[in-house]
């Protein structure tokens, strides 16, 4: 298919691939950013026992009836329990146990008085406050009850989930496999950073740009290479790695020039081209193919065009492969604070900054070959085809990045 709309392109890509079925068991400490492959149930209560939420004295509420600083009640201190300790004692009327935050409340006690409302007595304690039953009392299972669903299958694991699971004594979790990605940057003009820049050459930015963006998503490419404009070499490399990856992303070589050789690569591989050219700017020449049932997403070589089409086309593919819905591009509305006076003959995406419902430009440079003006931006303005200009106060659609 040729010259298709963005939404159609996404639909074709998502329909052509399946979510990765492989799972693996990993250490909990490594689980942040991964997708749970199963429902996880609480094996115990948390807290596992009735505990004190503060430093004070565990006692029987009835013993404090009428207590105040003018009507002091006195109780015998029979024991002291620190966090991590416990007592087998059953508290009796007229008794109190010195207790620290987090310690197990002894049997017989039904409340805890904070130490600031006592005289901090060691053998005998003065009580200056009347308490009700279960005042300052944390019940077993108050946070998490045994058999509660802690994590649902398909849920993105965060640092909070890691803390929850750790509090349950869980050390390993079963997660979905991470998409294995091959990243190939093409172009004879591209020089590797660190080498002396030859006349007519430019240093690569796309490899580091997309590699780092993938890492932000918790996805580390297993192959990342720069290859010159040789259809044979690129085809051979894709053929070599195709069984080891779930997705190949390329940049460069997708337009109509003599050095735009990705078309020749697909012919050499006998790959199935699903679409070429998407009705948007920048990144119109984006191409999507299947080779041995593996997706190849080919993006423009211009840095901002590569980034834009990666955000709009690459993220839906990664979301489907990984089962991570959070990778889907998120669209919201915003209000323009600046003007954009250029007419848009086709659908266009412009870099900008979104904050508290307002959208503004950080720079005036919007060329697809310019990357520096993207620094600090956190959204793309979706400018519809035929829009003559954007004015201050306009309600617009944006894609968060």
Describe the secondary structure blueprint for this structure.
Layout: E1 2-4, H1 6-16, E2 23-27, E3 40-41, E4 56-59, E5 73-81, E6 95-99, E7 111-114, E8 124-127, E9 149-151, H2 159-167, E10 172-176, E11 181-186, E12 190-191, E13 202-203, H3 206-216, E14 223-227, H4 231-241, E15 247-251, H5 262-269, E16 272-278, E17 287-291, E18 294-299, H6 303-322, E19 330-336, E20 348-355, E21 358-360, E22 379-383, E23 395-400
Parallel strand pairs: 1-16, 5-6, 11-14, 11-15, 12-13, 15-18, 19-21
Antiparallel strand pairs: 2-10, 3-9, 4-6, 4-7, 5-8, 16-17, 17-18, 19-23, 20-21, 20-22, 22-23
Helix pairs in contact: 1-6, 4-5
Family: Belongs to the MoeA family.
Keywords: Magnesium, Metal-binding, Molybdenum, Molybdenum cofactor biosynthesis, Transferase
Pfam families: MoCF_biosynth, MoeA_C, MoeA_N
- The overall average pLDDT, rounded, is 94
By DSSP (H or I, 4+ residues per run), the number of helices equals: 6
Helix content: 10-25%
Strand line-up across the major sheet: 1-16-17-18-15-11-14
Main beta-sheet strand count, sense and barrel state: 7 strands, mixed
Kindly name the structural category: alpha/beta
Q: Into how many domains do the coordinates divide?
A: 4
Explain what this protein looks like in three dimensions:
- This protein has helices spanning 6-16, 159-167, 206-216, 231-241, 262-269, 303-322, and strands at 2-4, 23-27, 40-41, 56-59, 73-81, 95-99, 111-114, 124-127, 149-151, 172-176, 181-186, 190-191, 202-203, 223-227, 247-251, 272-278, 287-291, 294-299, 330-336, 348-355, 358-360, 379-383, 395-400.
- The chain has 401 residues and is of the alpha/beta class.
- The protein has four domains: 2-20 and 178-327, Molybdenum Cofactor Biosythetic Enzyme, Chain A (3-Layer(aba) Sandwich), CATH 3.40.980; 23-45 and 143-176, Molybdopterin biosynthesis moea protein, domain 2 (Alpha-Beta Complex), CATH 3.90.105.10; 56-127, Molybdopterin biosynthesis moeA protein, domain 3 (Beta Complex), CATH 2.170.190.11; 330-400, MoeA, C-terminal, domain IV (Beta-clip), CATH 2.40.340.10.
- The strands form six sheets. A seven-stranded mixed sheet has the order 1-16-17-18-15-11-14, sandwiched between helices. Strands 7-4-6-5-8 form a five-stranded mixed sheet, with no helix packed on it.
- β16 (272-278) and β17 form a beta hairpin.
- α1 (6-16) packs across α6 (303-322).
- It is elongated and about 95 Å long.
- Belongs to the MoeA family.
- It comes from Clostridium gelidum.
- Catalyzes the insertion of molybdate into adenylated molybdopterin with the concomitant release of AMP.
- It catalyses: adenylyl-molybdopterin + molybdate = Mo-molybdopterin + AMP + H(+).
């Amino acid at each position: 298919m040729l010259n298709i709309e963005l939404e159609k392109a996404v639909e074709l890509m998502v329909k052509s691939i399946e979510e990765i079925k492989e799972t693996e068991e990993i250490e909990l400490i490594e689980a942040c950013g991964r997708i749970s492959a199963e429902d996880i149930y609480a094996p115990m209560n948390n807290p596992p026992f009735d505990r004190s939420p503060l430093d004070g004295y565990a006692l029987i509420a009835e013993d404090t009836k009428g207590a105040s600083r003018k009507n002091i009640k006195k109780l015998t201190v029979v024991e002291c329990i620190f966090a991590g300790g416990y007592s087998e004692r059953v508290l009796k009327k007229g008794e109190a146990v010195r207790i620290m935050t987090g310690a197990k409340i002894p049997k017989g006690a039904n409340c805890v008085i904070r130490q600031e409302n006592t005289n901090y007595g060691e053998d005998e304690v003065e009580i200056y406050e009347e308490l009700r039953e279960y005042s300052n009392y944390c019940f077993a299972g108050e946070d998490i009850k045994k058999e509660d669903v802690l994590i649902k299958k398909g849920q993105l694991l965060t640092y909070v989930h890691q803390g929850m699971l750790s509090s349950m004594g869980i050390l390993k979790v079963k997660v979905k496999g991470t998409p294995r990605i091959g990243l190939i940057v093409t172009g004879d003009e591209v020089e590797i950073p660190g080498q002396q820049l030859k006349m007519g050459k430019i240093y690569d930015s796309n490899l580091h740009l997309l590699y780092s963006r993938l890492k932000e998503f918790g996805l580390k490419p297993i192959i990342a290479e720069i290859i010159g404009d040789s259809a044979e070499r690129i085809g051979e490399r894709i053929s070599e790695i195709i069984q080891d990856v779930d997705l190949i992303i390329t940049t460069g070589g997708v337009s109509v020039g003599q050095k735009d050789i990705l078309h020749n690569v697909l012919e050499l591989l006998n790959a199935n081209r699903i679409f070429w050219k998407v009705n948007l700017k920048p990144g119109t020449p984006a191409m999507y193919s299947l080779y041995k049932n593996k997706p190849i997403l080919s993006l423009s070589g211009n840095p901002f065009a590569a980034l834009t089409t990666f955000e709009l086309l690459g993220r839906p593919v990664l979301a489907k492969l990984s089962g991570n819905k959070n990778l889907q591009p998120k669209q919201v509305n915003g209000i323009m604070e600046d003007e954009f006076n250029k007419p848009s003959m086709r659908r266009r995406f412009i870099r900008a900054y979104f904050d508290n419902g307002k959208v503004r430009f950080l720079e005036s440079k919007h060329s697809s070959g310019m990357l520096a003006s993207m620094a600090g931006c956190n959204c793309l303005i979706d400018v519809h085809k035929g829009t003559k200009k954007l004015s201050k106060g306009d309600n617009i659609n944006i894609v968060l990045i």
